[in-house]
Design brief:
With 335 residues, the protein is of the alpha/beta class. 45% of the residues lie in helices and 14% in strands. It is built from twelve helices and ten strands. The strands form two sheets. Strands 1-2-3-4-5-6-9-10 form an eight-stranded parallel barrel, surrounded by ten helices. A two-stranded antiparallel ribbon has the order 7-8. It is globular, with a radius of gyration of 19 Å. Bound molecules: zinc ion. Zinc ion binds next to loops.
Amino acid sequence: MVNYKDLGLVNTREMFKKAVAGGYAIPAFNFNTMEQMQAIVQAAVETKSPVIMQVSKGARNYANATILRYMAEGAVAYAKELGCEHPEIVLHLDHGDSFELCKDCIDMGFSSVMYDGSSLPYEENIKISRQVVEYAHKYDVTVECELGVLAGVEDEVASEVSHYTKPEEVIDFATRTGCDSLAISIGTSHGAYKFKPEQCTRDPKTGKLVPPPLAFDVLAEIEQKLPGFPIVLHGSSSVPQDEVDTINKYGGNLPDAVGIPEEQLRKASKSAVCKINIDSDSRLAMTAAVRKYLAEHPDHFDPRQYLKPARENMKKMYIHKIVDVLGSDGKLAQC
Ligand SMILES: [Zn+2]
Protein backbone atom coordinates (compact mmCIF):
# COMPACT_ATOMS: atom_id res chain seq x y z
CA MET A 1 0.00 0.00 0.00
CA VAL A 2 1.46 3.33 -1.11
CA ASN A 3 -0.09 6.54 0.20
CA TYR A 4 -0.09 9.42 -2.27
CA LYS A 5 0.96 11.84 0.46
CA ASP A 6 4.30 10.05 0.65
CA LEU A 7 4.76 10.77 -3.07
CA GLY A 8 4.19 14.50 -2.60
CA LEU A 9 0.84 14.43 -4.40
CA VAL A 10 -2.37 16.12 -3.23
CA ASN A 11 -6.06 15.22 -3.56
CA THR A 12 -8.59 17.52 -5.21
CA ARG A 13 -10.59 18.69 -2.18
CA GLU A 14 -8.95 22.04 -1.33
CA MET A 15 -8.08 22.67 -4.97
CA PHE A 16 -11.72 22.39 -6.08
CA LYS A 17 -13.05 24.43 -3.18
CA LYS A 18 -10.75 27.29 -4.16
CA ALA A 19 -11.50 26.92 -7.86
CA VAL A 20 -15.28 27.06 -7.36
CA ALA A 21 -14.96 30.09 -5.08
CA GLY A 22 -12.44 31.78 -7.38
CA GLY A 23 -14.29 31.23 -10.65
CA TYR A 24 -11.63 29.24 -12.47
CA ALA A 25 -11.05 25.58 -13.40
CA ILE A 26 -8.17 23.17 -12.80
CA PRO A 27 -6.70 21.63 -15.94
CA ALA A 28 -6.83 17.83 -16.10
CA PHE A 29 -4.37 16.69 -18.73
CA ASN A 30 -4.08 13.04 -19.73
CA PHE A 31 -0.59 11.64 -19.99
CA ASN A 32 1.18 8.44 -20.92
CA THR A 33 4.58 9.49 -22.22
CA MET A 34 7.57 11.15 -20.60
CA GLU A 35 7.37 14.11 -22.99
CA GLN A 36 3.74 14.79 -22.04
CA MET A 37 4.62 14.61 -18.35
CA GLN A 38 7.54 17.01 -18.77
CA ALA A 39 5.45 19.46 -20.79
CA ILE A 40 2.63 19.39 -18.22
CA VAL A 41 4.99 20.03 -15.30
CA GLN A 42 6.89 22.79 -17.12
CA ALA A 43 3.61 24.51 -18.02
CA ALA A 44 2.21 24.20 -14.48
CA VAL A 45 5.40 25.53 -12.88
CA GLU A 46 5.80 28.43 -15.30
CA THR A 47 2.21 29.54 -14.78
CA LYS A 48 2.10 28.68 -11.06
CA SER A 49 -0.98 26.55 -11.65
CA PRO A 50 -2.26 23.51 -9.78
CA VAL A 51 -2.63 20.58 -12.16
CA ILE A 52 -4.29 17.19 -12.45
CA MET A 53 -2.32 14.54 -14.30
CA GLN A 54 -4.69 11.81 -15.30
CA VAL A 55 -4.34 8.30 -16.51
CA SER A 56 -6.98 6.31 -18.35
CA LYS A 57 -7.32 2.55 -18.44
CA GLY A 58 -5.87 2.70 -21.96
CA ALA A 59 -2.86 4.66 -20.70
CA ARG A 60 -2.31 2.03 -18.00
CA ASN A 61 -2.35 -0.65 -20.66
CA TYR A 62 0.01 1.32 -22.89
CA ALA A 63 2.57 2.58 -20.41
CA ASN A 64 2.14 0.23 -17.43
CA ALA A 65 0.45 1.31 -14.19
CA THR A 66 3.61 1.07 -12.09
CA ILE A 67 5.62 3.21 -14.46
CA LEU A 68 2.90 5.89 -14.56
CA ARG A 69 2.86 6.01 -10.76
CA TYR A 70 6.61 6.61 -10.67
CA MET A 71 6.26 9.21 -13.41
CA ALA A 72 3.80 11.12 -11.22
CA GLU A 73 6.20 10.88 -8.30
CA GLY A 74 8.90 12.09 -10.68
CA ALA A 75 6.66 14.95 -11.77
CA VAL A 76 6.57 16.28 -8.20
CA ALA A 77 10.36 16.04 -7.90
CA TYR A 78 10.78 17.66 -11.32
CA ALA A 79 8.50 20.57 -10.38
CA LYS A 80 10.66 21.18 -7.30
CA GLU A 81 13.79 21.03 -9.40
CA LEU A 82 12.26 23.66 -11.70
CA GLY A 83 11.92 25.95 -8.70
CA CYS A 84 8.42 25.24 -7.40
CA GLU A 85 8.87 24.13 -3.79
CA HIS A 86 5.15 23.46 -3.21
CA PRO A 87 3.61 22.10 -6.40
CA GLU A 88 -0.01 20.94 -6.28
CA ILE A 89 -0.13 17.86 -8.46
CA VAL A 90 -2.95 15.32 -8.44
CA LEU A 91 -2.56 11.82 -9.88
CA HIS A 92 -6.05 10.89 -11.05
CA LEU A 93 -7.59 7.77 -12.59
CA ASP A 94 -9.75 8.79 -15.56
CA HIS A 95 -12.84 6.62 -16.23
CA GLY A 96 -12.29 3.81 -13.75
CA ASP A 97 -14.84 1.20 -14.79
CA SER A 98 -14.84 -1.07 -11.73
CA PHE A 99 -14.38 -0.96 -7.97
CA GLU A 100 -11.30 -3.19 -8.33
CA LEU A 101 -9.55 -0.85 -10.77
CA CYS A 102 -10.22 2.15 -8.51
CA LYS A 103 -8.97 0.23 -5.47
CA ASP A 104 -5.85 -0.86 -7.34
CA CYS A 105 -5.02 2.77 -8.17
CA ILE A 106 -5.70 4.00 -4.63
CA ASP A 107 -3.45 1.24 -3.28
CA MET A 108 -0.60 2.29 -5.56
CA GLY A 109 -0.55 6.01 -4.79
CA PHE A 110 -3.26 7.74 -6.81
CA SER A 111 -4.64 10.77 -4.95
CA SER A 112 -7.93 10.87 -6.84
CA VAL A 113 -10.01 8.40 -8.84
CA MET A 114 -13.00 8.58 -11.12
CA TYR A 115 -15.55 5.84 -11.01
CA ASP A 116 -17.63 6.03 -14.17
CA GLY A 117 -20.86 4.09 -13.82
CA SER A 118 -22.73 6.41 -16.16
CA SER A 119 -23.61 3.62 -18.56
CA LEU A 120 -25.16 1.50 -15.77
CA PRO A 121 -28.72 1.73 -14.48
CA TYR A 122 -29.05 4.61 -11.99
CA GLU A 123 -29.23 2.50 -8.79
CA GLU A 124 -26.30 0.32 -9.88
CA ASN A 125 -24.22 3.45 -10.59
CA ILE A 126 -24.99 4.72 -7.07
CA LYS A 127 -24.16 1.38 -5.46
CA ILE A 128 -20.68 0.99 -6.95
CA SER A 129 -19.89 4.72 -6.72
CA ARG A 130 -20.71 4.53 -2.99
CA GLN A 131 -18.44 1.49 -2.59
CA VAL A 132 -15.54 3.33 -4.26
CA VAL A 133 -16.13 6.45 -2.16
CA GLU A 134 -16.13 4.45 1.10
CA TYR A 135 -12.83 2.80 0.24
CA ALA A 136 -11.20 5.97 -1.10
CA HIS A 137 -12.15 8.17 1.82
CA LYS A 138 -10.41 5.81 4.24
CA TYR A 139 -7.19 7.02 2.64
CA ASP A 140 -8.29 10.62 2.02
CA VAL A 141 -8.45 9.98 -1.74
CA THR A 142 -11.08 12.04 -3.56
CA VAL A 143 -13.63 10.53 -5.95
CA GLU A 144 -15.26 11.84 -9.12
CA CYS A 145 -18.43 10.13 -10.30
CA GLU A 146 -20.47 10.59 -13.46
CA LEU A 147 -24.11 11.09 -14.17
CA GLY A 148 -25.39 11.45 -17.72
CA VAL A 149 -23.81 9.91 -20.80
CA LEU A 150 -21.22 11.63 -22.96
CA ALA A 151 -21.12 10.79 -26.61
CA GLY A 152 -17.88 9.36 -27.91
CA VAL A 153 -16.19 8.88 -31.23
CA GLU A 154 -17.92 5.57 -31.85
CA ASP A 155 -21.36 6.52 -30.63
CA GLU A 156 -24.33 6.36 -32.94
CA VAL A 157 -26.01 9.42 -31.52
CA ALA A 158 -24.42 12.45 -29.92
CA SER A 159 -25.69 15.41 -27.93
CA GLU A 160 -29.32 14.46 -27.64
CA VAL A 161 -31.21 15.87 -24.70
CA SER A 162 -31.78 12.40 -23.34
CA HIS A 163 -28.01 12.01 -22.86
CA TYR A 164 -27.68 15.12 -20.74
CA THR A 165 -27.40 14.87 -16.98
CA LYS A 166 -30.86 15.18 -15.45
CA PRO A 167 -30.73 18.05 -12.94
CA GLU A 168 -33.51 16.43 -10.88
CA GLU A 169 -31.19 13.49 -10.10
CA VAL A 170 -28.06 15.29 -8.94
CA ILE A 171 -28.96 15.94 -5.28
CA ASP A 172 -29.97 12.33 -4.70
CA PHE A 173 -26.89 11.05 -6.54
CA ALA A 174 -24.37 13.30 -4.78
CA THR A 175 -25.89 12.67 -1.34
CA ARG A 176 -26.15 8.90 -1.63
CA THR A 177 -22.76 8.31 -3.25
CA GLY A 178 -20.84 10.84 -1.12
CA CYS A 179 -18.72 11.68 -4.19
CA ASP A 180 -16.40 14.71 -4.06
CA SER A 181 -17.10 15.93 -7.59
CA LEU A 182 -19.54 15.16 -10.35
CA ALA A 183 -18.86 14.77 -14.07
CA ILE A 184 -21.87 15.89 -16.04
CA SER A 185 -22.99 15.75 -19.64
CA ILE A 186 -24.03 19.06 -21.19
CA GLY A 187 -22.95 18.49 -24.78
CA THR A 188 -19.19 17.91 -24.58
CA SER A 189 -17.92 14.74 -26.19
CA HIS A 190 -14.80 12.56 -26.29
CA GLY A 191 -12.28 12.54 -29.15
CA ALA A 192 -11.29 14.80 -32.05
CA TYR A 193 -14.60 14.30 -33.89
CA LYS A 194 -16.99 15.56 -31.28
CA PHE A 195 -19.81 16.31 -33.64
CA LYS A 196 -20.96 15.04 -36.99
CA PRO A 197 -21.09 17.63 -39.77
CA GLU A 198 -24.91 17.41 -39.80
CA GLN A 199 -24.99 18.51 -36.13
CA CYS A 200 -22.97 21.62 -36.94
CA THR A 201 -23.35 24.70 -39.06
CA ARG A 202 -20.58 25.90 -41.38
CA ASP A 203 -18.79 29.22 -41.15
CA PRO A 204 -19.58 30.77 -44.54
CA LYS A 205 -16.15 32.47 -44.71
CA THR A 206 -13.83 29.59 -43.77
CA GLY A 207 -16.04 26.60 -44.54
CA LYS A 208 -15.10 25.20 -41.11
CA LEU A 209 -17.65 23.45 -38.92
CA VAL A 210 -19.22 25.38 -36.05
CA PRO A 211 -20.37 22.97 -33.31
CA PRO A 212 -23.65 23.25 -31.40
CA PRO A 213 -23.36 25.24 -28.13
CA LEU A 214 -23.08 23.57 -24.71
CA ALA A 215 -26.27 23.31 -22.65
CA PHE A 216 -25.54 26.09 -20.18
CA ASP A 217 -29.17 25.99 -19.03
CA VAL A 218 -28.66 22.43 -17.78
CA LEU A 219 -25.43 23.48 -16.06
CA ALA A 220 -27.21 26.40 -14.38
CA GLU A 221 -29.97 24.10 -13.11
CA ILE A 222 -27.40 21.68 -11.70
CA GLU A 223 -25.57 24.52 -9.96
CA GLN A 224 -28.82 25.68 -8.45
CA LYS A 225 -29.51 22.21 -7.04
CA LEU A 226 -25.98 21.73 -5.69
CA PRO A 227 -24.60 25.16 -4.83
CA GLY A 228 -20.82 25.20 -4.66
CA PHE A 229 -20.48 21.50 -5.55
CA PRO A 230 -17.49 20.78 -7.84
CA ILE A 231 -18.58 19.97 -11.39
CA VAL A 232 -16.35 18.30 -14.00
CA LEU A 233 -16.42 18.53 -17.78
CA HIS A 234 -15.04 15.66 -19.83
CA GLY A 235 -14.36 15.70 -23.56
CA SER A 236 -13.37 19.35 -23.55
CA SER A 237 -10.62 19.60 -26.12
CA SER A 238 -11.05 22.43 -28.58
CA VAL A 239 -9.39 20.63 -31.52
CA PRO A 240 -7.38 23.71 -32.62
CA GLN A 241 -7.74 24.17 -36.35
CA ASP A 242 -4.12 25.26 -36.84
CA GLU A 243 -2.92 21.91 -35.47
CA VAL A 244 -5.43 20.01 -37.60
CA ASP A 245 -4.33 22.04 -40.65
CA THR A 246 -0.64 21.28 -39.93
CA ILE A 247 -1.42 17.56 -39.61
CA ASN A 248 -3.35 17.58 -42.89
CA LYS A 249 -0.69 19.65 -44.65
CA TYR A 250 2.04 17.16 -43.78
CA GLY A 251 0.35 13.95 -44.85
CA GLY A 252 -2.39 13.53 -42.24
CA ASN A 253 -6.05 13.05 -42.94
CA LEU A 254 -8.37 14.53 -40.33
CA PRO A 255 -11.23 16.06 -42.29
CA ASP A 256 -13.86 17.95 -40.31
CA ALA A 257 -12.33 17.32 -36.87
CA VAL A 258 -14.19 19.56 -34.45
CA GLY A 259 -14.06 20.38 -30.72
CA ILE A 260 -15.55 22.65 -28.07
CA PRO A 261 -14.91 26.38 -28.71
CA GLU A 262 -12.63 27.87 -26.08
CA GLU A 263 -15.01 30.78 -25.33
CA GLN A 264 -17.53 28.22 -24.10
CA LEU A 265 -14.96 26.54 -21.87
CA ARG A 266 -13.92 29.93 -20.51
CA LYS A 267 -17.54 30.64 -19.67
CA ALA A 268 -17.90 27.21 -17.99
CA SER A 269 -14.70 27.76 -15.97
CA LYS A 270 -16.27 30.74 -14.28
CA SER A 271 -19.16 28.61 -12.99
CA ALA A 272 -19.13 25.59 -10.66
CA VAL A 273 -17.13 23.73 -13.29
CA CYS A 274 -13.77 23.32 -11.56
CA LYS A 275 -12.08 20.54 -13.60
CA ILE A 276 -11.84 20.47 -17.36
CA ASN A 277 -10.44 17.40 -19.11
CA ILE A 278 -8.18 17.90 -22.10
CA ASP A 279 -6.65 14.96 -23.94
CA SER A 280 -7.17 15.20 -27.72
CA ASP A 281 -5.57 18.66 -27.95
CA SER A 282 -2.33 17.28 -26.56
CA ARG A 283 -2.41 14.40 -29.04
CA LEU A 284 -3.00 16.84 -31.90
CA ALA A 285 -0.21 19.19 -30.74
CA MET A 286 2.22 16.29 -30.54
CA THR A 287 1.26 14.76 -33.88
CA ALA A 288 1.28 18.10 -35.72
CA ALA A 289 4.82 18.87 -34.51
CA VAL A 290 6.12 15.37 -35.30
CA ARG A 291 4.58 15.31 -38.80
CA LYS A 292 5.95 18.75 -39.64
CA TYR A 293 9.41 17.95 -38.32
CA LEU A 294 9.71 14.63 -40.14
CA ALA A 295 8.37 16.09 -43.39
CA GLU A 296 10.95 18.89 -43.23
CA HIS A 297 13.82 16.63 -42.14
CA PRO A 298 13.43 13.36 -44.05
CA ASP A 299 17.01 12.36 -43.20
CA HIS A 300 16.58 12.57 -39.40
CA PHE A 301 15.80 9.48 -37.37
CA ASP A 302 16.75 10.28 -33.76
CA PRO A 303 13.45 10.38 -31.81
CA ARG A 304 14.83 13.19 -29.65
CA GLN A 305 14.96 15.40 -32.73
CA TYR A 306 11.22 15.20 -33.41
CA LEU A 307 10.00 14.70 -29.83
CA LYS A 308 11.64 17.92 -28.70
CA PRO A 309 9.45 20.17 -30.90
CA ALA A 310 6.50 17.91 -30.00
CA ARG A 311 7.14 18.57 -26.30
CA GLU A 312 7.51 22.30 -26.94
CA ASN A 313 4.27 22.41 -28.87
CA MET A 314 2.36 20.58 -26.11
CA LYS A 315 3.81 22.89 -23.49
CA LYS A 316 2.68 25.92 -25.48
CA MET A 317 -0.83 24.44 -25.70
CA TYR A 318 -0.96 23.63 -21.95
CA ILE A 319 0.12 27.17 -21.05
CA HIS A 320 -2.47 28.63 -23.40
CA LYS A 321 -5.23 26.54 -21.79
CA ILE A 322 -4.15 27.45 -18.25
CA VAL A 323 -3.80 31.17 -18.88
CA ASP A 324 -6.35 31.98 -21.59
CA VAL A 325 -9.10 29.41 -21.05
CA LEU A 326 -9.23 27.97 -17.51
CA GLY A 327 -7.73 30.87 -15.56
CA SER A 328 -5.82 28.67 -13.09
CA ASP A 329 -2.53 30.57 -13.49
CA GLY A 330 -1.09 32.11 -10.34
CA LYS A 331 -3.44 30.04 -8.17
CA LEU A 332 -0.83 28.00 -6.27
CA ALA A 333 -0.99 28.85 -2.57
CA GLN A 334 2.81 29.06 -2.59
CA CYS A 335 5.33 28.15 -5.22
ZN1 LIG B 1 -13.83 11.44 -20.14
